[in-house]
Write the structure tokens for this entry.
Amino acid sequence: MSHLPFHTSTPQHTLAAYGWDDGYAADFAPYAEQGLLPGRVVRVDRGQADVFTTDGLIRADTALVTPHDPLRVICTGDWAAVEPAGDPQLIRALLPRRTAFVRSTSSKRSEGQILAANVDHAIIAVSLAVELDLGRIERYLALAWESGAQPLVVLTKADLVPDPTGLSYLVEDVETTAPGVQVLAVSSETGQGLDVLAALVADGTSVLLGASGAGKSTLANTLLGADVMEVQAARDVDGKGRHTTTTRNLLVLPGGGVLIDTPGLRGVGLWDSEAGVGQVFSEIAELAEQCRFHDCGHGAEPGCAVLAAIEDGSLPERRLESWRKLMRENQRIVAKTDARLRQEMLRGWKQLSVEGRANMAVKRGGRAR
């Protein structure tokens, strides 16, 4: 049996529902000549992967393409070239990724962890059952923008905010935090906003992200129209839930599109996300262009347009502090893998230490040593 490249122009193509298109067909062409099967990874667990291929769902071994680089390991959402026979069948190669959602691990080695690949929309689920954590939302947004996907903030459990005015204010708060990002309040109980969400995810691949208890599994079940994902009640004390989703699962939506559900994320560490942070705080970048000095650090420099915006109230001070925090964190992550930048940071820290001692000496009426 020969396995030829498939194209979306063929309506019966098995993989069309999983996001296959002519671009992937072109990337797969060399593997088709070798008689390999195209397929999309729908789940990875303990060195094996469930892959939906033109021959249906198979269990494949990932050993041949699992490298030492943690960012190149097979993950949910990958497109793969699979051997047509074998027990288990073997994944021979991965097609080039269009996007990749990566966070830093808690490891002291500061390795990146890839959560999902080939994602078009990053749905950030935030529960309205607890107080909004705008800083955490900004973290998710930075990673989403850096991945290449289009972020979307979904405020779940909107039925717990019965006052329409209060709900409107919450949406506005998040919109201010997420420039250029759509913010949608939804309720799986009442159906509010779900038709809009279903239409947004009907085209392409979406990844569902958020903390435990954010209502991701309930939201996934609602979009799927069936109780596919296990759901557990969140604690009344803090709105947090247990990790009902333990692996990343790729699911085809009945209304079109593909959804990747993920476990609740306790930590949302940045991973080389300077561009993503810049996108989240685009108003600061715009203001910085008006600063007197092109390398203005927005600390105490004269002619700083960012500080002027803080003074006149057009830029919330919380936004500037959050930007500083994420930029510092991202620099530390990059420095751990970039020796040159690490040395530059060390020199900068030493200089700040010297300046700090000098300032303290002046305040005390003495002279700096």
In short: Residues 274-363 form a domain with the Ribonucleotide Reductase Protein R1; domain 1 fold (CATH 1.10.40.50). The CA atoms of residues 202 and 256 lie 4 Å apart.
